[in-house]
Structures are given as C-alpha cells and as structure tokens.
C-alpha cells in the first residue's frame, strides 16, 4: 500500500534489507563486502546500527538496496521500530566455524515473528566459509535446516567475497518477485503472503542475466 | 618560533636517551613520533598512540597521515613537549594541580576549556576526582584508594575461580563434577563464565583497530578482567557491547600517568606515588570504570520486547518520533535521545529540528552509538576523545554535558543536514568518525550552549552571532535593488579587508573572538533598531496565525531568516577566501592553479545548490506568509466592524512579503554571480 509506493519510484526499486545474527559472525563485513567490495579485518563491533546503500541492476530493473547492519548484541530491544520498520528482506547470518551461532538462528527467527515481520523475504548466510579447516557446522545440516524453513542458504565468505554478491542478487530477485506478487493482488499489502511458491527457474533466469552495476 | 624549533631538537635527543634507559612504553613512543614528524621524518610504522586513527581507518594511509599531522601540529602548538621529566618537575606540577584549596574548581575550568590536556601528566588523577573516586580532601586519598583496591582484589579472587583449585566440595562427586547439573557446582559457573569470557574477547579482538596498544596481551588481560568482574558483580546489567570502548581510554590514561612513576623513587610525595603506581593500574581502572558505569549504566540496559506490533503502532500514531512509545515504555537511552532531539534541539534550532522530523530521522539510529560510547568513535584521534572526556567528566557526575555535546555536534552540520534528504541525513549522521574538528572546539561550544541554557534569545550572540549580523542586513530598509547591492558589496569588502588583516585561519582565544564579535553585533544592533518595526509585525502575524508545522509552538522563531542570513555570511567569508586566492596567484605553478580551480568550481557548485535551497526556502516563506494573510483576511471580513487600519496594514504586510522574497532572491543571485566572476578570473590561462 504505502510501502508499495515507497519502494517503486522513478522506475527504481528501493528495498530495505536487514542483516541480523549473533555477535561477530561477520555481519558488518558482509555489508562492507557487498556495498564497497572491501574486506577489513579490523572492523570495530557495531554499536546500535549502521547502514549502507548499494545500487544494482537485476534483470533490467534498477534496484537500490538500503542495507541495515545491526549489533549482534542488540536483539532489537533498544532500537525498536525505527530500525526494522518496513524491511523487505532479512539476511540471517551465522558463522560456519561456531556451532552456537547456527543453533541461535531459530531464536532470531522467533524474534522476527514477535515483530510481525515473518512475512518478509528471508535468506540464510553461512559466513566465514573460507575457514574450511575450522568448520563446525556441516553443510548438509545447514542446508537441511534452510530447506525445512523455506529459506535459501548461501555459504559466503566476506573475506574472499565468495558468494556474497550471488546471495544478495538472489535475495533481490526474490524481493522483486514478492513485490510483483503483491502488486498483482492489490488488496494484499506488500510482501505478505506465502513466498514458498516462488518460481525457482524464473529466478535463475534473472540471476543469469544479471550483473552488478554501481 | 626559533625557540620552539630548538626545543623540538632537544626533545628528540632527550627522548631517544630516555627510551634507551627505560624502554619504549607507549607514551614515550608518542613523543618520539611527534619529534620526528616535526623534523620531517615520518616513519609509517610508528604510530603516535594519541593521534592514531581509530576505528576503521588505515593508519598507514598517507592521506590520513598527512591530514592528521596538520591537525596535530595545529592543536598542539601551545604545548610543545618539555623534555626533561624529573622528580622536581613532577612534584611541582602535582602541587600546582592539586595543592590549592580550590583545586577542584580550577581543574574543572581547565577541563571545560580544553586545557587539561596541556597538563595531562595527571589526567587519570583528575578524572578520578571528577568522577568522585577520590574525596575532596587530599589527605584522605590514600585511604580511599587502598579501600577500593582491596575491594577489587576481593572481587577478583571471588569471581575468577578456577574449578580445579576449588577444594570446597571436592569430596562430593555429585556436585564437583564437570557434568554435574547442580547449579552450585563450581563447574556450572565455570561454563557460564567461559561464555562471558568469550563474548568479551570477541569484542576485545576488534577494539580500536588503529591502535596496537590495545592488542597487547597485558592490556587485553586487564580489560578482560575488569569487564568480567563488572559483569559478574552486576548480573542484571552484565556485559554489553560498547562497555569495552568506554573502559579502554580509562586504562590508556592511567597507564600514561603511571609511566612517570619510575622517576619518583626518591620522592617524598607518597600520595602522588601511590596514585600513579603502575602496580595498581588494574584496580584503579576498575574503580574509575565502576564509577563511570554507575552513571551511564542505564544507557546500556535493553528494554523488553514490545507486546504489540510496531508497525501498527507507527501507522496509528502518525507522528514519526512518537512511534516507539505507545507499545512499551522506551528504554532509558531512547528516552534520553528523544529528550535531546524533541525538546532541546527544538528549543535551540527549530529549523533543524523540524527538518529532521520531516525527514523522519529518529535519533536512536545514530545517537545510540554517540551516547553509549561517549562519542568514542566520533573523533579522529584518541587525544580528541580524551579532551572531550575531560570536559564531560568535569562538568558534573550526572554527565548532562553529553546532551550539549550532542547538540553541538548536530548543529555543526546543520547546513549540510538541511540540504539533504532522508538518506543524505542518515549518511551524514551515521558516518564514523562523525566529527573531524578539534574536540576542544566542541567542548567550548557545548559549554556555551549549556551556559546560555538554550535560551533562544541569547543564542544569536557568541558562536552564532554571525546570524544576527547578516540578518540585520537582510532586514534593513528595503528600498531599491541598487542600494542592497551596494550594501552587500561594501560588506564584502569589509570581509575581504578583514581576511587580509588576519591571514591565520585558526581562531585566537575565544575571549578575544568574543569581544570583536561583540563590537560587530553592537554596530548591527543599532541598525536593527532603526528597522525593527517590520520584523515585529511579522512576529505578531506569526503568533496570531494557527501554528504551522514549520514553526511548532515557538513564537520567537524567526530562524528561517537566520538560515538564509547565516549561510550568506559563510558565503561571504567563502568569497573572501576565494578572492584572497585570486589576489596572489603563483603564475609559475600552473598545475596547482588548475587544481585550485577545480576545487573552487566544486565548491561553487555546492554553493549553487545551497543558493537554490535558500531560494526555495524564501519562496516557501512567502507562501506561508500569504496563507496567514489570507486567513486573517477571511476572519476579518466576517467581522462586522470594518477596520480600515487593519486592511491597510494587511496590504502593507503583503507588500513586505513580496518584497522580502524579492530581496532575498536578488541578493543571493548577486552573491552567486560574484562567486562566478571570481572563479572565471581565477581560471588558469
């Protein structure tokens, strides 16, 4: 409704994406890698929130992403509505070298449910995939979990940049699909409803023809 | 200047001697880098701990380095290092700082004017005084310190328990067993503790990445122990991200103090020796941290989850800043942030306030970090943070000064903010480091704001006096266009003359600046007096009109005019800078000239954007005025009694409105064209 107008102006889509997850899983690094394509080992802990924007073209559509990075410690409580209001996409991050960050993912999902944002597009990132020798979360377990929760999982590495762009592009394509779905059923508010019906082949087409432009 | 240079040379030699003797602790390292920089030797591997870039900045980036040196030399030229550290010097310094009966007030004065850094050898002691770790009576210091130290030692032995060495229940295998589910088993506590330890360590690993100092094992251990003990002692607060960045500068300062301890072997001043004894660094840091946390702990507590969906709450209320309030009581930090932005900023700068409100900028997005870390990430160097904290702690143990620093920081970027949209504002406000200015200036400005008690009638003097001055030149009788232009150009010439007379941009002491400003504003007051009638009429009109969202409940608000006026002053000084550049072109160096030209053009385009913005404001102003007049007119025609006088004055008002817009637009256009002319003449052949 109102958001519908907000996120589609002048032929440019504007999506707000939140990155959440435990302390020190690499949320800020993922944001930095995606938005600026740099990796800085020395990134101080995020206090409160941080944000960056990134423009990209996907399937001929101009998309502006507003990426919000949270403090792993914060758990929404102090920031409240200001932060997650109107989010279109959620990136849940865990650290593949630390099992407890993965087992905490349901807790984060629960918290999202409490905020009535269970309808937005969600995607799971297993970060620090470059540290293969220290891996603690088996691939199969993680993929199984993601499948059962209707989420896509990407094992990423903010350090090497591996899969970060692909994962975000996938997220954007799903948000675009959700947007059009919502538009076609005008009575429904934006990005609500069951997203599990997303047509995969269509997304892959979009991803294949896409390129990052900024 | 020659004398200074000599002292630099000496200092460098002395320092290397000192270093040979005592090894290179961080503070001496600093002197060495400073000295070598002044002699033009810059070693990339040596980083001055006080001026080291904090946060995400690459300390080895030459661009950062250069900018930094300039700032450093500028801000420290009054306290060039005095090399010899002897027992006598330290004793006399101590005596000067803490010897007098009224020492506390004097220290406060020093700190609130940014001068405590000149005698920073005992900064840690000063902070302990400010934060009430030490009683007023110097004779009681020893006893108090001993007490707090033994308290910390007890805490440490209580909380840092090794289950292997715990013998109490060794016989009872039911309890003393790593797999025991009993809650009083030392092992269950051990696992809890390990979690907490890991959590803290995760943050310590990325603490002030620009400073190697905090990555040493010794300092890391101290940080860990203190944070751990604090979290265990206050289980309802625990450890929260950000506390580590509050503690780190405290340890840095105490360690810095303790570096001179080695010179005091023969000193009779037991109090001084005891207070800066490096042996007690950890205990003393805990004491300081605990006292500071007592004040700022509420800002770290997190509220409970709101029961109702925030989305609904937001839509229902329709008032952006109130959005967080209806569902659950906001946390202390949100209340504080709302107070600052909702009432203090509104009082001080209503235009900026309503702009941020319109842009839906909520203070917790950027202010949370500002306040929780006590601005620890908003400045470029550690020295800036310490200077800021001097003022912060000295002002009083309620740390209300935090609010005024907040205002000072936000008002300082007001022009940028006013010309930005939602994203632009957020980008400006959330940038780290936010402030590239000297912290001393920020402290002075915040102090000024506090002293004037945010009294809007007084704010235009002093720091913001520039507004008043040019406001008068806008509101001066508004006859012909030529007259205005001549007025502006004569004003311009004045500014130019002033610029030539005082080539150094770095302002003198505030006092002297104030007096000259006072003179200026006196002059302008006379002029304002002559033509005071019109603005008064305007205000009356404003009051009687229904409150618009642009002027929320503030009858005294004529900031709109100030806005345009203020940026005109800045544009005038900008012009003066421009023309001073034009006056002395070094024709030999064409490339630098070209670079200059490009830079200037960049600024002109920025300037143009500014002018456009102001024009739109003036148009807005006019339309607002029109609407008020219409309302008045409607009301009065309904009235039986027909008052010719009122109609006449209404007509006059209308004319004024039209004129005013015209005048502002004309003068802005004029300034812009002057700027372009100067650019053209500055263009390299």
Automatic annotation (TrEMBL), chain A:
Q: Which InterPro entries match?
A: P-loop_NTPase (IPR027417), Rab (IPR050227), Small_GTP-bd (IPR005225), Small_GTPase (IPR001806)
* Protein keywords: GTP-binding, Membrane, Nucleotide-binding
- The question of whether Nucleus is a record keyword is answered with no
Query: PROSITE patterns this protein is in?
Result: RAB (PS51419), RAS (PS51421), RHO (PS51420)
**Signal peptide (residue range):** none
An example molecular function term from Gene Ontology annotations: GTPase activity
A Pfam family name for this chain? Ras
Q: What is its main location?
A: membrane
Q: Any one cellular component term from GO for this entry? A: endomembrane system
Q: Where in the cell is it found?
A: Endomembrane system
Instruction: Quote the NCBIfam families the UniProt record gives.
Output: small_GTP (TIGR00231)
Q: What is this protein called?
A: Ras-related Rab-1A
Q: Which organism is it from?
A: Paramuricea clavata (Red gorgonian)
From TrEMBL, chain B:
What GO molecular functions are on record for this protein?
GTPase activator activity
Return the annotated region ranges for Disordered. Answer: 498-535
Q: What residue spans carry the Basic and acidic residues bias annotation?
A: 519-535
Which Pfam families does this UniProt record tie to the protein? Answer: RabGAP-TBC (PF00566)
For this record, an example GO cellular component is: cytoplasm
Q: Which residues form a coiled coil?
A: 590-617
Domain of life of the organism encoding this protein: Eukaryota
> Which InterPro entries does the record cross-reference, listed alphabetically?
Rab-GAP-TBC_dom, Rab-GAP_TBC_sf
Q: Sorted alphabetically, which PROSITE patterns does this protein's record hold?
A: TBC_RABGAP
Instruction: Enumerate the UniProt keywords alphabetically.
Output: Coiled coil, GTPase activation
Protein name in the entry: TBC1 domain family member 5 isoform X1
């Amino acid at each position: 409704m109102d958001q519908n107008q907000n996120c589609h102006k002048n032929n440019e889509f504007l999506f707000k994406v939140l990155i959440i997850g435990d302390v020190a899983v690499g949320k800020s690094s993922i944001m930095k890698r995606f938005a600026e394509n740099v990796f800085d080992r020395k990134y101080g802990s995020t206090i409160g929130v941080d944000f960056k924007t990134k423009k990209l073209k996907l399937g001929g559509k101009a998309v502006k992403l507003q990426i919000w990075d949270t403090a792993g410690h914060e758990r929404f409580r102090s920031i409240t509505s200001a932060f997650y209001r109107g989010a279109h996409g959620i990136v849940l991050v865990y650290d593949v070298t630390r099992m407890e960050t993965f087992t905490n993912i349901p807790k984060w999902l629960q918290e999202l449910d409490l905020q009535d944002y269970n309808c937005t597009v969600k995607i799971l990132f297993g970060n620090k995939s470059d540290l293969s020798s220290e891996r603690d979360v088996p691939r199969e377990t993680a993929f199984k979990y993601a499948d059962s929760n209707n989420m896509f999982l990407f094992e990423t590495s903010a350090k090497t940049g591996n899969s970060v762009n692909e994962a975000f592009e996938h997220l954007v394509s799903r948000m675009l699909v959700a947007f059009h779905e919502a538009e076609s059923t005008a009575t429904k508010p934006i990005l609500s409803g069951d997203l599990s019906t997303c047509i995969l082949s269509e997304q892959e087409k979009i991803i294949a023809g896409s390129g990052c432009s900024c | 200047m020659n004398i200074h240079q000599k002292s630099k040379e000496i200092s460098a030699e002395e320092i290397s001697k000192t270093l040979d003797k005592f090894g290179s602790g961080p503070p001496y390292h600093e002197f060495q880098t400073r000295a070598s920089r002044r002699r033009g030797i810059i070693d990339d591997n040596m980083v001055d701990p006080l001026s080291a870039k904090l946060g995400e900045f690459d300390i080895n980036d030459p661009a950062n380095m250069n900018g930094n040196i300039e700032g450093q030399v500028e801000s420290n030229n009054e306290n060039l290092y005095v090399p010899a550290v002897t027992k006598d010097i330290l004793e006399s310094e101590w005596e000067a700082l803490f010897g007098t009966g009224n020492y506390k007030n004097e220290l406060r004065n020093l700190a609130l004017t940014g001068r405590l850094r000149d005698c920073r050898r005992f900064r840690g002691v000063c902070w302990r005084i400010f934060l009430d770790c030490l009683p007023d009576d110097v004779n009681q210091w020893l006893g108090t310190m001993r007490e707090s130290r033994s308290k910390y030692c007890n805490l440490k032995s209580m909380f840092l328990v090794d289950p292997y060495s715990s013998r109490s229940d060794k016989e009872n295998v039911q309890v003393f067993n790593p797999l025991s589910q009993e809650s009083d088993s030392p092992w269950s506590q051990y696992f809890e503790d390990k979690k907490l330890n890991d959590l803290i360590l995760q943050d310590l690993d990325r603490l002030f990445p620009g400073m190697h100092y905090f990555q040493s094992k010794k300092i890391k251990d101290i940080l860990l122990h203190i944070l751990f003990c604090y979290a265990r002692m206050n289980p309802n607060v625990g450890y929260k991200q950000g506390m580590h960045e509050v503690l780190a500068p405290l340890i840095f300062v105490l360690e810095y103090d303790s570096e001179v301890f080695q010179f005091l072997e023969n000193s009779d001043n037991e109090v001084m020796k005891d207070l800066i004894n490096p042996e007690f660094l950890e205990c003393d840091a805990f004491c300081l941290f605990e006292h500071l946390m007592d004040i700022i702990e509420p800002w770290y507590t997190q509220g409970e989850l709101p029961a109702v969906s925030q989305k609904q709450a937001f839509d229902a209320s329709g008032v952006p800043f109130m959005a967080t309030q209806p569902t659950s009581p906001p946390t202390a930090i949100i209340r504080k942030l709302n107070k600052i932005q909702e009432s203090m900023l509104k009082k001080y700068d209503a235009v900026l306030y309503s702009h941020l409100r319109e842009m839906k900028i909520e203070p917790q997005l950027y202010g949370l970090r500002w306040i929780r870390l006590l601005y620890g990430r908003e400045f470029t160097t550690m020295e800036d943070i310490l200077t800021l904290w001097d003022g912060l702690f000295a002002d009083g143990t309620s740390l209300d000064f935090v609010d005024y620093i907040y205002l000072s920081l936000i008002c300082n970027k007001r022009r940028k903010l006013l010309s930005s949209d939602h994203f632009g504002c957020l980008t400006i406000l959330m940038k780290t480091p936010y402030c590239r200015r000297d912290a001393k200036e920020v402290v002075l400005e915040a102090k000024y704001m506090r002293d004037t008690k945010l009294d809007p009638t007084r704010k235009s003097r002093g720091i913001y006096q520039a507004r008043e001055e040019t406001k008068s030149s806008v509101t001066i009788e508004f006859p012909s266009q030529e007259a205005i232009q001549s007025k502006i150009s004569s004003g311009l010439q004045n500014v130019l003359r002033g610029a030539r007379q005082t080539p150094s941009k770095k302002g003198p002491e505030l006092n002297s600046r104030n007096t000259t400003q006072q003179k200026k504003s006196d002059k302008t007051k006379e002029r304002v007096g002559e033509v005071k009638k019109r603005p008064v009429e305007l205000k009356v009109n404003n009051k009687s009109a229904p409150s618009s969202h642009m002027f929320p409940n503030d009858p005294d608000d004529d900031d709109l005019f100030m806005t345009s006026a203020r940026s005109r002053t800045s544009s005038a000084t900008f012009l003066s800078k421009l023309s001073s550049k034009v006056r002395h072109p070094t024709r030999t160096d064409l490339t630098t000239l070209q670079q200059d030209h490009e830079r200037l053009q960049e600024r002109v385009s920025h300037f143009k954007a500014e002018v456009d913005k102001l024009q739109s404001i003036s148009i807005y102003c006019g339309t607002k005025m029109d609407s008020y007049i219409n309302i008045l007119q409607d009301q009065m025609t309904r009235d039986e009694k027909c008052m010719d006088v009122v109609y006449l004055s209404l007509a006059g008002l209308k004319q004024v409105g039209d004129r005013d817009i015209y005048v502002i637009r004309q003068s802005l256009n004029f300034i812009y064209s002057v700027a372009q002319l100067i650019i053209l003449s500055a263009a390299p052949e």
